[in-house]
Amino acid sequence: MIVLSLSSVAAFKVMAERVYYKDLRKYVLAGDRIPPALKARDGKQVSIVGYMIPFDSVDKINRFILLQAQFMGCFHVPPPQPNEVVLVDMGSKTANYSETPLLVTGTFQIKKTYEEDFLISVFTIRNAVVKAAKGNEVEMDGLPANFHLSEF
Q1: What's the whole-model pTM score?
Q2: Distance between CA 100 and CA 111 in Å, rounded?
């Protein structure tokens, strides 16, 4: 369960453009070729739907990875590429772990993020607010060819 304060809910009234993983994948890592449509969103309010992958805790999380599909972080599935991962930074706000899809809204930033010398993401959403997503908001189209939901 995710609990949001009244001030957090008010943040959703800011018009945020929806971003999709199929568009994030268009960032070509070799040569850092950023599509103009993504570059235009840098520093703007966006929303994206995905699944939370916490770093080290399931309570009072303020920083986590957001993936398009729930099982993309499993050890038996090829790992997502940095252009398929969104680092979510909630600032001083926190949420508890959720297995359900989340709608994340905040300031979109194109910036390489490394953890222990590994590039984990080229996208960050800062000052993020999270809430439960509706089933029809989940983006399941365009999953990598080597990812098969039917196996689960």
Answers
A1: 0.81
A2: 27
Q: Which of 135, 105, 130, 109 is nearest to 24 (CA)?
A: 109
In a domain, 16, yes or no: yes
The total number of structural domains in the chain stands at 1
| Rounded (5°) CA angle 58-62-67 | 75
Residue 97 lies inside a defined structural domain of this protein: yes
Q: Look up the domain containing 15 and give its range.
A: 11-134
* Helix or strand holding residue 31 (H, E): none
DSSP β-bridge partners for residue 67: 51, 85
Residues 18-52 have pLDDT tens digits of: 999 999 999 999 888 999 999 999 999 999 999 99
> Is the Cβ–Cβ distance between 39 and 19 less than 8 Å?
no
